[in-house]
Automatic annotation (TrEMBL):
Keywords: Cell membrane, Membrane, Transmembrane, Transmembrane helix
Topology of this chain in the membrane: Multi-pass membrane protein
UniProt source species: Saccharothrix variisporea
Stretches that traverse the bilayer: 52-71, 78-101, 107-124, 136-154, 166-186, 207-229, 241-261, 268-288, 294-317, 329-350, 356-373
Domain Major facilitator superfamily (MFS) profile stretches: 12-380
Location(s) in or outside the cell: Cell membrane
Pfam families membership: MFS_1
Recorded GO MF terms: transmembrane transporter activity
Lineage: superkingdom: Bacteria
Gene3D superfamilies in UniProt: MFS general substrate transporter like domains
Record's protein name: Putative MFS family arabinose efflux permease
Length: 381
């Protein structure tokens, strides 16, 4: 994918990739160090899981209002403020010994994430030549599997070796370096017209609602399992292999986004169906609870999930037409509502039925995904 994009402005795009990397790293790291955070903060594991939930809530409740309120801001200025927000929030998380303070810091980080996700796809399209816009988005979205394959396993290992707080300090350092990189390498662009009046218009565009439904169900199922992956692995006797399992997931995700980036313009719907089926097979594989089955299933899970963010962002951009920017902000909001729901529903399932119920929930939630993709093919074409 990258080898064929010689004319892409890689300095700027890789800075945006790093912004996506930091966003996912900040979001998901508690899943990898959840038992240690739980013990240190003096709360149960289901309560610690809500650190992912409140992050998602921060994004969900502020993405659309902030996109509207900052529509006139210069784009680089807005991006810099958001990345600086990550630095502040991760610093507070690293030093806090009070659960409520940590929750507040995670909410602030979620607000910053909402701004970043609303900016990235549009920014990638503006810095790249028109004919390479799709590949530019794929390059930027590669930050997601890179965070999953490198950042989260490394953070998990670091957390186990020297303490989870050190991992959050490293994230602060990355955010500080990224601020300088953006100033040097990322071009500035003027703001755009407010999207307040375009929400209804976006919802009326054929296919937008269908993509949003797919997003809600797919992301909810994924996050129920991913948020509590350390707890699930502990229940099946693999609690010491969390970092390795996350590495397998992340490497498979990188392969996934490479495959998606290579053919997304021609096979959007087919790739979405394939991703759904791969994740479903993976969830079924986890039910066997043996180490071999778990590693194979996690590989299939990453192979299915890795390209999903790019697939859905591309789908909503196509479906949204003239209201694509607003549709993108709506997808970001719904994505994070589903993330928050994953933390909440996963916590309820953990307390009520135990961690082995998580794969079943994924299978149930993927049914409406397949139904919508089959009934509304134009939404993903």
């Amino acid at each position: 994918m990258v080898m064929t994009s010689v004319r892409l402005p890689l300095g700027a795009l890789l800075a945006l990739t790093t912004a996506a990397f930091v966003t996912v790293l900040t979001e998901a790291l508690p899943a990898g160090v959840l038992p240690a955070m739980s013990a240190d903060l003096g709360v149960g594991e289901s309560a610690t899981g809500q650190l992912v939930t409140v992050y998602a809530i921060g994004t969900a409740v502020t993405a659309i209002p902030l996109v509207a309120a900052t529509a006139s801001w210069r784009r680089r200025r807005l991006l810099l403020v958001a990345v600086a927000g990550f630095a502040v929030a991760n610093t507070v998380t690293a030093v806090s010994a009070v659960y409520a303070v940590t929750l507040g810091a995670r909410f602030v980080a979620g607000v910053a994430a909402g701004v970043v996700w609303a900016l990235l796809a549009g920014y990638a399209r503006r810095v790249a030549p028109v004919e390479l816009a799709g590949k530019a988005i794929a390059v930027v979205m590669a930050g997601i599997p890179l965070a999953l394959s490198l950042g989260i396993p490394a953070g998990t290992f670091l957390g186990q070796a020297v303490g989870w707080r050190a991992a959050f300090w490293v994230m602060t350092g990355i955010a500080v370096v990224l601020v300088g990189w953006i100033v040097v390498a990322v071009p500035d662009f003027p703001g755009e017209a407010s999207g307040r009046r375009q929400v209804v218009a976006a919802l009326r565009m054929p296919g937008v609602v269908a993509v949003l439904v797919v997003t809600a169900a797919f992301v909810l199922g994924h996050n129920i399992l991913y948020t509590y992956i350390a707890t699930f692995l502990g229940a099946v006797g693999m609690g010491g292999s969390v970092d390795v399992v996350l590495l397998v997931f992340g490497v498979a995700s990188i392969v996934s986004i490479w495959l998606v980036g290579a053919s997304i313009d021609r096979r959007l719907r087919a790739l979405t169906v394939a991703a759904t089926l791969l994740v479903a097979v993976a969830a079924a594989g986890l039910l066997f609870e043996s180490p071999v089955a778990v590693f194979v299933a996690v590989g299939l899970w990453g192979l299915g999930w890795g390209g999903v963010p790019t697939l859905l962002q591309t789908a909503v951009a196509h479906a949204g037409g003239p209201a694509a920017d607003t549709a993108q902000a709506m997808l970001v909001t719904l994505w994070n509502v589903a993330m928050a729901g994953g933390g909440v529903v996963g916590g309820v399932l953990l307390d009520a039925a135990g961690p082995t119920s998580f794969p079943w929930s994924v299978l149930v939630l993927l049914v409406p995904v397949l139904v919508v993709v089959r009934r509304f093919p134009r939404a993903l074409s």
